[in-house]
Write a structure and sequence with these properties.
The chain is an alpha+beta fold and 73 residues long. The protein is built from 2 helices and 3 strands. Strands 2-1-3 form a 3-stranded antiparallel β-sheet, with no helix packed on it. A hairpin with a 5-residue loop joins β1 and β2. The longest helix is centred in the middle third of the chain and has 7 residues. The two termini are 36 Å apart. Bound molecules: zinc ion. The site of zinc ion has 8 residues, from loops.
């Protein structure tokens, strides 16, 4: 889901907002201003390097679940 982190330029509040339309205006939940800045999302970075995704790739070892298995593969 397109979840983004924003920071309000007016009251400096940080919040997360679900953005379905890139053109949509994001409103600060505290002061209701639309003067907000989108920050780098921490969610996508975490999920990209997750070890859970290794099993679905099909190349990981079935014995030890390591990506670079040289002992039992
Ligand atoms: Zn605000």
């Amino acid at each position: 889901m397109p979840m983004y982190e924003f920071r309000c330029n007016t009251c400096r509040k940080k919040f997360e907002e679900l953005v379905l339309n890139r053109e949509a205006r994001v409103q600060c939940p505290k002061c209701k201003k639309t003067n907000v800045t989108r920050l780098m999302s921490a969610f996508s970075v975490k999920s990209a390097g997750s070890s859970k995704g290794a099993a679905s790739s099909g190349k990981s070892c079935s014995g030890c679940r390591s990506k670079n298995c040289g002992s039992c593969g």
